[in-house]
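User: Continuing from earlier, I have the next pair ready.

Assistant: Great, send them over.

User: Here they are, in order.

Assistant: Folding the first of the pair now:
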Amino acid sequence: MTELDTAIAANRANWDQRADVHARSQMYDVDGFLADRSAISQVVRNDVAVLAPHMKGETVSGRSLLHLQCHIGTDTISWVRLGAVDVHGLDLSPGSLAHARRIAGADGADVTWVEGDARAASSVIDRRFEVVVTSAGTIV
């Protein structure tokens, strides 16, 4: 195993552990998010304000969307709630994706979840999207 492989494995394990913590945390408030089908995560509310001027019609409604580094899926589901279609969420952490699938299932959100490294997304998702996003805290 190379040094890079070791670092990626450690990062994946870190995010698997965080996923369990985040899914139970007040910060993500998954139960509250699921209880209010009109709720949009604060992260996505902020991202919409940044993206809107760059999109015709200033909306993701009706557009295909890829969410890189989607973590436990609450932001991805928020994009669905805003009308994005053919939504894919990609994450390195299988633990994060397990929570994302559970949360989306409880919400009824139609999302395709894909495990992979965002740096090589095209190697696991062979298609184009109208909108590609990543959320706060994913690129530092």
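And the other member of the pair:
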Amino acid sequence: MRSVRHVGGSVVNGIWRLGYASRFFVLTLLKSPVSFRRFHQLTMREVYFTGVLSLIIIVVSGLFVGMVLALQGYETLQKYGSSEAVGTLVALSLVRELGPVVAALLFASRAGSAMTAEIGLMKATEQISAMEMMAVDPIARVIGPRFWGGVISMPLLAAMFSAVGVFGGYLIAVVLIGVDDGAFWSQMQAAVDWRQDVLNGVIKSCVFGVAVTAIALFEGYDAPPTAEGVSGATTRTVVTSSLAILGLDFILTAFMFTGV
């Protein structure tokens, strides 16, 4: 009986948190006009915090991912006499899949965890309660700008990741190995389609940005006001965001590229 009661309590608590998170997300969208009316004062600061401060890890990771793709792709394509197509392999892998997914995972681990910790500490130090007592809506003033800052930053970071990754592939394939420069770029341009590849990658990154930012802000706002509560919320943000990114990636890929 105790185990059944425990399972039932976990299910009820999970459903309650899902409903609370949905209500939190809807309230964030409804109170977003404040974020746009004071865009430069509020939202742009969050774009800097979530986007600009994440550039180092995005650029370095994108460069090495592109270099590894070029090395692995060249070894495989050379067996079939298609080594000039390594640029196509690198570009399609990054634009379609690795760019949005890996950038989103890095975004969740760097910016998402930071947003959760920041909101959780504001709650633990009663700054959220102080805002409510002064008739300042914390969702409109604190949550909204951070949400839109993350949503704006994520596609830009994914694009930067893919661009740097292609450059890393160029360094390995053309500069180091000696693949023909013209063949590398011409086959890449011929194979990469704007709507089918680039636009779908942008859509993926936008969806990942919404999911990761919403999860991070909800976990911070719902965190117990203790040091243990904030640390647990930060851990849940990274884990839940990573699972959400991978699950959404499968769903979006099924609709975009297979016609399911």
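Worth noting for the second one:
The longest helix spans residues 138-177. Residues 2 and 153 are 46 Å apart (CA to CA).
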